[in-house]
Predict the 3D structure of the following.
Amino acid sequence: MQPTIDVVALGNALVDVLSYEDDAFVNAVGIERGAMTMVDLERSDEIYAAMGPGTEISGGSAANTVAGVAGFGGRACFVGKVRDDQLGRVFRHDLRSIGVSFDTPAAADGLPTGRCLVVVTPDAQRTMSTYLGIAPDIRPEDVDAETITSAAVTYLEGYLWDRPEAKAAIVKASEIARGAGRRVAFTLSDPFCVDRHRDEFWDLVGTHVDILFANDVEVRALTEADDFDEALQAVRGRCDIAVLTRSEHGSVVVAGDEVHVVAAHPVEAVVDTTGAGDLYAAGFLYGVTHGHDLHTCARLGGAAAAEVIGHLGARPVTPLRAFAAEILGDGG
Amino acid sequence: MQPTIDVVALGNALVDVLSYEDDAFVNAVGIERGAMTMVDLERSDEIYAAMGPGTEISGGSAANTVAGVAGFGGRACFVGKVRDDQLGRVFRHDLRSIGVSFDTPAAADGLPTGRCLVVVTPDAQRTMSTYLGIAPDIRPEDVDAETITSAAVTYLEGYLWDRPEAKAAIVKASEIARGAGRRVAFTLSDPFCVDRHRDEFWDLVGTHVDILFANDVEVRALTEADDFDEALQAVRGRCDIAVLTRSEHGSVVVAGDEVHVVAAHPVEAVVDTTGAGDLYAAGFLYGVTHGHDLHTCARLGGAAAAEVIGHLGARPVTPLRAFAAEILGDGG
């Protein structure tokens, strides 16, 4: 049976609250520069109180990725948890408005919709403090077998691995997908996330994952390698395709004997790097699900990443189809 | 007694939800291009459902103005009504984070915090659909005499005039201010607002207002004049200072025999005109409350307007002090 969805993603449903701050702010507030740190509500409120005026834009790593897939014209679906509150409605509206299906019911009680405080410094680096709220409350029963088997790729975010129920949901989704002959893609999400779950992630990648996404730091954390090339060799063959991103140095795609080293897409001015990895995955998966070769997939990923770092926020603001047309020729 | 506040403003507390759309969208949804239209919750939800992904940024006309005054380094205060909901907390955070005092208690029940759906078209024009929610529920008891008498200027927005209680609050604030020898500034807000209240606005301007802000269209609506110059002559002398803005044609300030015709501040690229008038008022009032001549006040207004139309959202994202330093010389 032909898939009717290109990519279904499971991830944390988060609204980003972005503000521009200087380096002194990062030091004064005591947040880890360039990283994503999980915080509780009290700490989230403390950081928010110190931040300047915010811009609220829907985010969440895997949600950004399916937003990007839809931006390319792909068929995308999201599974994640919001509360029936204002941020939850904002999150749902923003995904649906770009054509992403999102039907996981909002929780009627419990914690509020999660939010990620994103401090953007003058070098366009983002430092994130995430209060997850209800987001990781994804359970195996939220994973609908029909949706997963309808999707060419099921995309899972490492961030979800902290909670047993969400972990069980990931395993369930990946087993259904592979059982139906579909592919599973997994992102390591964050080096600290990898540190917390190194052995389990290594097992998961070897047993449940077809396409692995990681950046330079994450793949070295996973493999405990001293440099990028050592990490690349370690991960090679662990899954069908390993996609390793290296910011301005482009990306490397390894699939068995096939290796592609692809330059970064040119960017006029880097404004905010939030979402770069998420959008790279979007372009790559759009390519994979539309029958393109791995070099082309990497170029599509790079183009989508370039778009999203050119403005504030982690979701594309210009139609990604235009990038696809440029890279693929007029056929789109 | 010297004022301890430069500008206190009474206005609608609104969070803006902005999205980029094409002209076909404006026609299909049936909203009045370039205007601000009041809508009920049902219509607001209908337009929101049709809009693309949103960016939420605090707004509200008079609130934008005090945000701008604070951006120049002025002492500013806001009086307005939010609910104790997520949008209400966002609104309060954003004002306080830039140093604007905002102590009007949040309502514990009633309608939700108001929001303004802003559709930005490729020509950078904004079309606004406002669901006021709890915003206009400002009552005379929300106006604190001590705050008003502490402020050099009390700034009032015409939008509030639709509700009897809010109208009474405006009249109370202006009477306290003038009784204490302070100045009252008033913005006509919107041509449709002027149409609804022409006679009352004309009376108010003649009896309670020292500084009137209006754009070309609004001042012609107020005076029912055929052209700008006729409107200018009609409004001249009706209050101490009339400040008339004309988009890219700059502004005209009339104060008795004094008339200044000031060119617009150069802008690299106009992205979103939301907040241009609000920020013009901010620069002008910062100038007035810091002893600058009317020509300089108009230049400060123009500079602040230029900043805000260069990016998405109606609040400044760069420090306005830099503009002031440029215009005023190193003294700042």
Q: What stands out?
A: The interface with chain B takes residues 19-20, 48-49, 51-58, 67, 85-87, 90, 93-94, 97-98, 112, 313, 315, 317 of chain A (CB under 8 Å).
